[in-house]
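Late entry, written up from scratch paper. The run itself happened at the end of the previous shift, but nothing got recorded in the book at the time, so transcribing now.
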Amino acid sequence: MRTTINSDMGESVGIHSFGHDEELLGYIDTINVACGMHAGDPGAMRRVVERAVAAGVSVGAHPGLPDITGFGRREMAVDADEVRDLVLYQVGALVGFLDAAGAALHHIKAHGALYGMMSRDPALMGALCDVALQYGVPVFGLAGTPHEEVARARGVAFVSEYYVDLDYNDDRTIRVQRTGATRPLDSVAERTRAALHDGVTRTVSGGVIPVRAESFCIHSDLPNAVEVARVVRDLVGERVGAAQAG
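Output as recorded:
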């Protein structure tokens, strides 16, 4: 499998825009589109889908918790049935815009707090897999956590991603931040090389854990997201594009 780069996009509401969506499209292979719960609205979804398709970038769904105020980065008490309905509702909305643009759904990747909750709770991850099976697409997640374990058990294709801009815990989960923070480019390069070539990363406690970087995630709301993307692109190599990524 060739290593790709993905980014979360369409995270805007009305006249309020976040992230560096257009500038990043030249550096990445696939995007995860906000579907209206943590961010995004119909117009934003249409625009980001059309721009991604025009740029040859594949499009996945990025369903989150219904919490625009907290940007989907605050945990909520939800059960598996509620998660399944939330994910199905959001994926269905994105698929409508993809159909209109003549493109297919590429994958599903949970957003923010929901992503973190699924990395610890197999039942919640199982709810996401129900929707992935319905649409016949892979899921993105963290290797060695219930993300991967449940997907494998359910027969759902799994893509292991690595975050160059988030900190890792000793249990291989990530620390979801409320806001994007600038990452020094030398640190980005060092972390990318370690994950790509050695399959490891350093944790917040100073330990070293194994990771599998089949896709690198870059958050579009980082102040220096474009510079980070350039560094990772140089180290990962040529952009795959939608034809090969699909």
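Strands lie at 4-9, 30-34, 58-62, 105-108, 139-141, 158-163, 200-202, 208-210, 215-219.
(Scratch paper discarded after transcription.)
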